Structure formats: structure tokens, C-alpha cells
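User: Can you predict the 3D structure for this chain?
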Amino acid sequence: MKNRYELKLLVLAVSSAVALTGISVSGYAQEFAGLEEVVVTARKREESLQEVPVAVSVLTASQLNDRGVFSTSDLNNAMPGLNVTSAYGDTQPNFTIRGIGVGTEYNSNAASPNGIYVDEVYQSMRASHGQQLYDLAQIEVVRGPQGTLYGRNTTGGAINFITNKPSFGETPSGYLTAGVGNYDRVNATGAIDFTPVEEKLAIRIAGNYVNSDPYIRNRMPAGISTVNPALPEDLLFGSPATGISPGGDESWGLRATAHWIAERSDFVFKAYASESKGGQGSPQNRGINGNVIFLGNSALGPLYDPAFGLTDFLPPAYSSTEQGLNDLEIEADTIGQSKVTAEGVVLNASFELSDQMTLVSVTGYDEAYLGLLPNIDCDGTPYSICAIGYESDSESFNQDFRLSVDGENYSLILGLYYGQDEIVTNNRPNFYGFLSDTLKALGFGPDYFNPGGLGVGVIPGVTADSLISRLNATQDYTQVRESAAIYGEGTYDFNDTFSLTVGLRYTEDDFEYKDALTTFYDDTGAPRLYTVSDYTDAAGNPARYAIDVSEGDANPLNRKDDSSQVTGRVILDWNVSDEVMLYASYSKGYRGGTYNGLAFQSAAQVYFVEPETVDAYEFGIKSRFLDNRVQLNASAFMYDYKGRQEQLLDPNAVTFLVNLDGELKGFEAELTIEASANLRLNAGISLLDSSYDSGDCSGVITSAVPQRGNCLSTGVGNIDVGGNSFPYAPDVSANIGFDWDIMELAGGMLILAGSAAYSDQYYFDTFGDYSYTSGTPGEPGFVNAGDAARGPIKDGNDSYYTVNGRLSYVADSYTVSIWGKNITDEFYYGNGINVEGSYASNYLVRTAPRTYGLELRYDF
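Assistant: Here is the predicted structure, written as C-alpha cells:
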């Protein structure tokens, strides 16, 4: 009932906007020319949006400006089936298209199943996917597997970010935008075009700067325990707090583009650099049983046994509710700084070989860096329980050659592709840091080292019931991926009505995981234990998971794997009339394999995760009617998923990757109406039904091996996830909006743009939701997502809606705008991970609250 009510409110908002104008669609047939044509490059050539037999959504430059899209979070639910989330910030977005995304994969070496392209260059490093979101000409979201022209890692689709190219002119031209907002936001964006060589060379320089304060406040000042201020200073459980609040943003970007036109050839060269810094995102602790964290039944349970006599030296139960924290407050002990940098160059060269034949070369080199240092708090409490530092450097090279041929009744694209990327990672997991103070109080020295189960049978004197120590480690590895492909796609027009498109691509991928070594240290900083290494016994077998440093040095682990795949598509389109096109298609998508990048307990957890594939069937319509005043595009689709890569958390294996099978079907529609010369309306809806297949859970499964199938091993036993929906895949999502030229005023125009988006509830991970078998925290059980008795959703978002608005006064050369986002101050989470099995809590990162601001733009 609540979902229907909220959806009705959104529809009513747009209906009211129409009513306020006092007009009807039929009353303005003679006052305007109709909807403008939108040109897209979804099939690697320029075509009208309405003539492409593929589901594509577009935000043009004017729409991006009118709606105030200046961060990736603004794209969330802006188009049917598009969900944008992030655990760390706008510069590190996770895109989900039609329920297909990274889910809970947060290791940097994993590739997204949705290909992200900036000016036709594939972006392999997920951390930098939001870095270049300024001075854009267009954003295209191509939905469905794109295994032919785009290739690997596009099982969900592809997103094209297209930057503005230089304009030729006799005098320099450009714009400058400056703005302020709440949370002390300051932003500036600008671009300038100039033409050094008339009709030959044009150059465009664009830049962007943003600085804003955090919207989450950390109530824990440096060095003070708000939970138990009576504790002696040397018993502040773990490292003292930094006093830093999470979130905020300080970012800049700079881009220079040169366009050279020669006889029968065209060259566009681009160089860019960007950086984003801010307080790390930190989870809002939402524990079980009334938001209580009770370590007595966590992995540290034995320490709370009265027989140990340690209860006076261990953290008490923690409840964010009892501490009086609101939705914009946390108490966290370790919040450092996130830093993302990206730089690169692109050369797009086009050679007109004849009137019918063109050769295009796209070359790109990119570097990116991700640092979440010194540590990111992953328990959401003032205690030093879980803190991990992440650091990765990436280099990538992409080369695409394609030959386009246009005949009288056919078109053809033939291409060769090569890509390589290398990611060097150094992660720093740190667990149960408060034990350093506890053991100190008990008289243990800093060289005391007991890693629990990891050390049993490996380190002399370590037994299952002895006191464990702080677990402090470094995890180092390098991953190299090489991909080569040959592809072709042709379209044949049987007549003016029917066309057939057939595409095929063959891809070979080589993967290398090398220089992998995980080392555990005691509190003196001395290495004590190797877990991930190439250690074997005398017979050459991996006899155990770990090696005591006293036995000698361990060499890094190295391994290689490869995969290959044939992908393609077949499309039949029927132009029923000049205004209506129907199409039916089959396509196959492929996501390359990967390694379990966050495995650091043993070499056995480092395994190759097989590629995923999807077979997609789609029927669609593209139409315009009422004298080109109404545009309706819709599609129905069905996916058969094989080996979907999912990352799961297990208290016994920390984190591991598996392959799952499932099905997905759905329907999407987009409606655009030119209601009058002054009013434009738009609306979209997405209906999804996703579910994993059922698996046989009768056998014993070990989580430290690659799993294929839907029976998963977890800390509470083997679980069949059959019937659960895909992560970040709401059954219903919708968006509506309007652009209203209200009136002429003092030589300018007053314009109001508004939008609203709705999302049904969805889950964050494959398990769907969790319940508990008793009132005792730390004993998770499992219920399928459809169990009505599970109670309120905890491991996902309940249904929510957001409302945005922008009022602008546009004159000849300047624009003044006031804007607001999430105007109703809706509360929902942007990311979540269930860690109840390890810390009896959930890792939940909320999205931005209500924001607003003022912006000035000058065009010259």
C-alpha cells in the first residue's frame, strides 16, 4: 500500500505541473515544431535515437545543465533501470543496469559488468569512473549485453560519457559557472574554445573544482572514548579516534582537447588529470537486537567467558540508539582520507578511405590511483574492531581499430581490439585492535602474537583456547589482464521496412595474479606469519594455510589463467511507419574472469573465478506520434544468467567470490511529451523480476575453493540462495520530470525544472535478508527473501523516493539558478554489507540528505 501511495504522489506532481500551465497537448499543435532529434553513438556510428534497434537512454548537454547533474549520484534512477551506489563517494560509483552490477564487490581488481567508456575508451579502474563528470556533451546508457561492438565486461550494458569537443570560431567562446551551497559547498566549472588555425585546428580547455564539508558528523573527538569516558587513557580500546568526519569532497579536474581537421582525415587528441579527496565514508552502525553490538557472541566470545576474568578490560556492548545518535551522526575511531587520482591521454583518428569506407583508430592510456588511508572503519563503533586500509595503482592501455563501410542497402563494421591493464594493490587489514590495550593491561608484551585459528599447528604454543592478539597484516598482489578481440557487425536492409543486423565477436583474455604475499605482524611491527604465499611442503603440496616466519622467508604466490568467449547478437527491426519501429533481438554478453582479490587468510582462497555469461532476449518499440510531440520507447526482456560473479562475506573466509546462475525478466518504458512550446514532460518506469536458481545443498562445501552453483558455504552452513532477487534490483522503479519555461521576464526567461524518482525495496547482497534463530546476537540464520515473517528489511533499502528542483533565470549571456536535491530529505542507504557474522552489525552507508545552493553562469 505504501509503495502505491508514493508512486501516486510522483504522478500527481507532474500532473499538477501540467494543470498549472492551463494547457492541453492538443491545444498547441501549431505553436512548436515538436521534439528535437537526438543523435547517439550506441552502435559506434552516429544515428538517430529513434532509428537504433537497441534500448538506449540519453541525457543531452542541455538536460544535464537544466537538471544540475554534476555528480554520479545525480544519475541514480534518472533513467529506467539505472541504479548508482557507492561505498566511498561520488568518484567511485557502482552502476547497476537492469539489476546487473557489482553487488557487494568492493575489491579493486574486479571489473564492473557494465562497461564504462569516456570518449570511446574503456575505463578499467572502477575507482575513477566518476572522475570526469563535467563539461559533458552527452551521457548514453546502452542497456542489455553489448558483447559485439563493446566486448567484455558489458553483460549489463555500457555507459558512454562523451565530453565536449572544441568549437571552431573567429573569437574565443566558452562559459564560467560558480556556485555555493549548504555544507559550505563551493564549486566552479568553466570551458573556453579558441581556434589557432582557421578551419583546421580548434582547442578546448575545461576545468572543474568542488569543495564541500561532510554531511555526516563524527561525534568521537580525537583520543576520547564517548562510550566509557571513565576508562583510563591507556585503555582506550584500540587506536585513538582521529576526530575526522566522513564524507565531504575536495576535487578538481582539468581537460584539454585539440581537434585537427585535414583533407579526408580528422584527429581529436585529449589529455586530462583529476583528483578527489575527502574524509572516508564510514558505516552507520546498525546492529542486531535494537542496534546493539554485543561482542560476547562474536568471534571474540571466549574472551567474555567469566573464567578468563577479562570482563573489566573488554569493550562493553555498544548501541548507536542508546548513544543518542541521529541519522547524520556516527562514532568511529578510525577515519582517514580517501584519495582518487586519474590522468590519461586519448587519440581518436578518423581516415576517410573512400566515399563509403572509413577507418577509425581509438587509442587510450590511463593511470589511476585509489587510496583509503590510513584505515577505513568497517565496524561503525568507537572501538578498534575492524579497520582496513586500501591502496591500488592502475595503468591501462586500450587500442581499437574499426573499419566502417556504408553501402546502398547495407552497413558493416569490422574491428580489432587490444587492451591491457595492471593493478598493483597493497591492502592493510587490521582486526581487533583494542586487544593491544587489553593484553597490555594483562601484562603481555608487544611481541605477543596469537592469530587464533590461523596459527594453530603453525606457531608453537598457539592453541584454540589461548588468548588471541590483534590481527595486523599487509596484503600485496599485482593483477595483469590482457584482452584481444576480433569483431564484426553488419546490417542489411531488405527494403524500406525490414532490416537484419548480425554481429559476432571472439575474445581471448589472459589473467596473471603475481607477487602475492600476505604477512601478519605483532605490535612491534615484526613479521610473524605468512598466509598467502607459495609455501609448500617437501613434496611440493600446500600442506597448510600459513607458515611461521621462524621457518624462513616465503616467496610470493604467482598464477596464470585464461579464458575465451564468442559473443554476438542478432536484431530484426521492422519500420511499421515513419514514426514507429518494432525490433526483436538476441544477444550474448561476457564478463571476464577475475581473482578473489581480498583473500588474505590462505593461498587456497586465491582462485580464479570463471567468466560470467548472459543470454538476453528483447522485444522493443520506438515511436513518435501526435505530430512528433510525443515519444514513447519501451522494451521487454528476459535474461538467462550463467556464472554470475558475486562477492560474499563469510566469517571463516573473510570474503570470497562465487559463480551463480539465475534469471531476470522485465519491462521498461520512457515517455517524452512536448506538451506545449513552454512545457516538456518526461517519465520512465522499470519493472524487474530477478531470481537465482535453486541448488543442491546436500553435500559439504568448503568456502576456500571456487564455488559454482547456488548452494553457498557460509559461517552458518550451506545455504541455497534460490529464489532470492539480485542485489540492487528493485521490482519497481520510476522517474518523472518536467522543464517549464514559465515566463519572459526583463529580457530573459524564467525556467523551472523538476524531477522525482521512486524505488521499490531491494537488497544489498545475494543472501537477500537475514533473521535470527534466537534472541542472542551473533547467531545468524537465513530466510529466503520471500519470507513474510522476516520483519523490516535490514540488509537493503525499503522503498523510497527523491525530489529535485532547479529554478533558473536565463538571459542573453548569464544564468542565475537556485537548486535543491533530495528536497524532502529522504533517508536511504547508498551501500550496505552484512557483517553480522563477524561483528554482529551491518555496514551501511547513507546517501546525502537535503542539499541546496545558488549558481551563476556566464557565457561568452
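Residues 649 and 655 are 4 Å apart (CA to CA). The helical segments are 2-21, 61-66, 288-291, 435-441, 836-839.
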